[in-house]
């Protein structure tokens, strides 16, 4: 059966994918930038617009890492404003489960769901590091091994709060003089390892019941959490074979929770470059990579893995001859570099030797080359193939420019996907659950009792 593709738009982030130095690049914080990107995604009939979150500025060698965009506003506030200038587009906020409280997050997401007419989504992330924790009153209080037990209990508690209001709880009946239908709001009581709370929730049930839940972790616990509790996975697996292995692995886990494979959509983060010919696209892609990985960024990549100050090395020269310092991290707040650094150094050395690469050339080669490069036709074909081959259910597109970075995708590639009959010509329902073809979420199920 031909699968329908799901598409989402990621606002350019605080990493080197975003080319803020390009003359076409606009503000990362003005509302007009968010509005332009969201309205472009809606014009393309995308499922949702996605905002990432980082709760502490990245640092390198004790200073702010200021080569990439630094600073960003808070997601739920931005999405609430976008709800007023969009009508169908889903609005996905990344909100951490380690440094927040369920009552407050549940309130804010239910509010966004109301304001947007059922378009809210929550990307539940589980920040691991005490470095981020220092920004919060309780410091790095959570051991890494506990972050998913807290995330799971956090989400379960939020679901209990959302479920404490019946869909028809508000009667507003002048005859009886009662605002609420008797029994329409139940008290909640949650007693668990991480939360012990009771009372009455104060936001009526949102149009979707529960917002769409997104999960972005990749560890075994992360995948299990997604299989038990999420509607969407935001994955890093954007290469065909790797994507298929991830897809098989996660979809296979769903049965244990009484769920069907189509109840969890897998959407890798991807990037793209278009040209009128394949050669033009490839040339543009190489230019963008050089803008993304300047000499200082190349050194930073290596320093993060080597655990050493490498500022004495020439970015256009060979790889450092010193051994990595695996006890030290010089980069803080950057998730990508925290595991297997020794192995990575050996792999990079072998690659640089084989292809005779300088530090900068190596960094360009190993750090996230664009996923789809080609003409609108070849990119549309590749996107479709990726989904039909069960390497994904769709994609979260990460543009390199703010705010015009998705314009050509929407104008040139989306119509071809629509022509193929693999992407919607128009929205068929008002809510994000409708776009994702997910059933309304009304009941706590297996995840809560397991
Ligand atoms: C594609 C992707 C996007 C992510 N986006 C964010 C983010 O915006 N904010 C954040 O704090 N963590 C983000 N994460 C980190 C994860 O939520 C999680 O904390 C991290 O991957 C570690 O979990 P793991 O050990 O299960 O992989 C992202 C992870 C992935 C794979």
Automatic annotation (TrEMBL):
Binding residues for FMN: 94, 148, 219
The protein's name: FMN-dependent oxidoreductase, nitrilotriacetate monooxygenase family
Organism: Microbispora rosea
Keyword line: Flavoprotein, FMN, Monooxygenase, Oxidoreductase
PANTHER family (UniProt xref): ALKANESULFONATE MONOOXYGENASE-RELATED (PTHR30011), C2H2 FINGER DOMAIN TRANSCRIPTION FACTOR (EUROFUNG)-RELATED (PTHR30011:SF16)
SUPFAM superfamilies: Bacterial luciferase-like
Annotated CDD domains: Nitrilotriacetate_monoxgenase
Domain Luciferase-like: 24-389
Similarity-based family: Belongs to the NtaA/SnaA/DszA monooxygenase family.
């Amino acid at each position: 059966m031909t699968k329908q593709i799901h598409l989402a738009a990621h606002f350019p982030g605080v990493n080197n994918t975003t080319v803020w130095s390009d003359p076409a690049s606009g503000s990362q914080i003005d509302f007009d930038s968010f509005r332009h990107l969201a309205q472009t995604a809606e014009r393309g009939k995308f499922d949702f617009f996605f905002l990432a979150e980082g709760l502490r500025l990245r640092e390198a060698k004790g200073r702010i890492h200021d080569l990439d965009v630094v600073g960003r506003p808070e997601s739920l506030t931005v999405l609430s404003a976008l709800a007023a200038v969009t009508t169908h587009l889903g609005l996905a906020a990344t909100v951490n489960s380690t440094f927040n409280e369920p009552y407050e997050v549940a309130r804010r997401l239910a509010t966004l769901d109301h304001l947007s007419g059922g378009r809210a989504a929550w990307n539940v992330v589980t920040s691991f590091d005490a470095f981020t924790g220092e920004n919060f009153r309780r410091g790095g209080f959570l051991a890494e091994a506990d972050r998913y037990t807290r995330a799971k209990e956090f989400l379960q508690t939020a679901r209990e709060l959302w479920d404490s209001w019946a869909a028809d709880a508000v009667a507003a009946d002048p005859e009886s003089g009662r605002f609420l239908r008797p029994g329409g709001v139940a008290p909640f009581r949650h007693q668990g390892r991480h939360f012990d709370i009771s009372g009455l929730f104060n936001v009526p049930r949102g149009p979707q019941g529960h917002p769409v839940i997104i999960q972005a972790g990749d560890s075994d616990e992360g995948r299990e959490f997604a299989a038990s509790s999420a509607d969407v996975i935001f994955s890093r697996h954007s290469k065909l074979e790797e994507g298929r292995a991830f897809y098989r692995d996660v979809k296979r886990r769903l049965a244990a929770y009484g769920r069907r494979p189509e109840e969890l959509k897998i959407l890798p983060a991807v990037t793209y470059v278009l040209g009128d010919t394949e050669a033009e696209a490839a040339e543009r892609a190489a230019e963008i990579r050089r803008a993304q990985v300047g000499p200082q960024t190349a050194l930073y990549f290596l320093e993060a893995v080597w655990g050493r100050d490498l500022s004495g090395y020439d970015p256009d020269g060979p790889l450092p001859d010193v051994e990595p310092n695996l006890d030290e991290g010089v980069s803080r707040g950057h998730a990508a570099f925290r595991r297997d650094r020794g192995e990575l150094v050996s792999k990079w050395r072998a690659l640089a030797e084989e292809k005779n690469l300088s530090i900068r050339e190596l960094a360009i080669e190993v750090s996230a080359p664009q996923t789809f490069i080609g003409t609108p036709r070849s990119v549309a074909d590749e996107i479709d193939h990726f989904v039909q081959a069960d390497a994904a259910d769709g994609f979260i597109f990460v543009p390199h420019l703010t705010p015009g970075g998705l314009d050509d995708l929407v104008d040139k590639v989306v119509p071809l996907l629509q022509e193929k009959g693999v992407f919607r010509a128009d929205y068929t329902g008002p809510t994000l659950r409708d776009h994702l073809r997910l059933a309304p979420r009304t009941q706590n199920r297996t995840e809560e009792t397991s």
